[in-house]
């Protein structure tokens, strides 16, 4: 780490990986769900994606970048529900959702565990996952990588993966894209011939063997897997002093 800066934590590597999902996004609405993705979106806004649009999480477009949990002081506009839907339906939003289950094709489940007619556990419900995944780029954040999340087949499809979008045809694939899956172990994508999940980078301290053991399906693993890029000294200062001074990121991703 340059400049004698304290070594980055696992949570801070995850923040940077999430921020990278919005690199070069332009004037696109960022919709992060979860603490680490929220910090990542704000870091992207303050660094390499200054045109990124942020909201207060409800109905206001904000012009400043407050600390997590703080109120925005600069409001740029009102985002009524109809306008929000217009952004969603035209690919001008990049949402980063969570996933209770995720399979090799990127199908996501946040609805239930077990058979749909008699589930073992009721979760959030399908919510907006179908329209998110079919109408704008959707990435995923998984704070605890395990075979219970990364499964061979999801119990119910909430977010649409590459195989199901392809089967539905051009109306489903026009805006469908899953750029990134980020977990506490590494970064994944679907840049393979059959659009199945690939290991793109490992967070420092994580091995390929650990990722393979924590994944319930066969990943595509390149011969040479790089490490997730480390935060710069400036990024660490923003994370620690400006965006997340209460270190809420460490509650979502404890020290390895």
Automatic annotation (TrEMBL):
<dbReference type="InterPro" id="IPR004165">
    <property type="entry name" value="CoA_trans_fam_I"/>
</dbReference>
<comment type="similarity">
    <text>Belongs to the 3-oxoacid CoA-transferase subunit B family.</text>
</comment>
<dbReference type="InterPro" id="IPR037171">
    <property type="entry name" value="NagB/RpiA_transferase-like"/>
</dbReference>
<protein>
    <submittedName>
        <fullName>CoA-transferase subunit beta</fullName>
    </submittedName>
</protein>
